[in-house]
Amino acid sequence: MIVYLDASVILRHVLFEPNTWLGWDQIAQGVSSQIAVVECRRGLYKAHSIGRIDDAALKTARRAVEAILNGLKMVRLTNAVTESSSQPSSVILGALDAIHLGSAIEFRKRSGEELIHFATHDRQLALAAEEMHFPILGA
What 3-state class would DSSP assign to 6? Predict the structure, then answer.
């Protein structure tokens, strides 16, 4: 199965948070946006700075995040992604979530694959992705 993963799914998995999506072994091809790199790294640093993880756990989590990100097909932030991300939606999205959705849409267009699953733990992003006919995982 082809799965677009947003940063919430990656971070929840790596940080062993509750209600983690358990379908990792079902991914034949994983896809995400370049912004996931920044979101994941910043998320780890935030978890460390607020005391959720210690130095050793940060190092381990950073390696895990990098391994996941290196295994994903990354969608670059192109003009097409920016345009797609800027389109109106009936669901209110922040800029980063809109970029994730725009990245998934552009990947679907470029790859020619119709069935791309969208994994997120963000309810608003799940609703917006569902509106764009992505099957939702993890929300």
Answer: coil
CA distances from 39 to 6, 28, 104 (A): 9, 23, 16
Q: What is the pLDDT along the chain (139 residues), one digit of tens a residue?
A: 999 999 999 999 999 998 888 899 999 999 999 999 999 999 999 999 999 999 999 999 999 999 999 999 999 999 999 999 999 989 999 999 999 999 999 999 999 988 999 999 999 999 999 999 999 998 6
pTM value is: 0.94
Q: How many residues does the chain have?
A: 139
Nearest to 39 by CA among 104, 100, 118, 89: 100
Sheet strands side by side (includes 116-119): 73-75, 29-33, 2-5, 116-119, 136-137
**Angle (CA) 110 113 116, round 5°:** 110
Structure tokens at 55: 């130095």
Domains of the chain: 2-137 (3.40.50.1010)
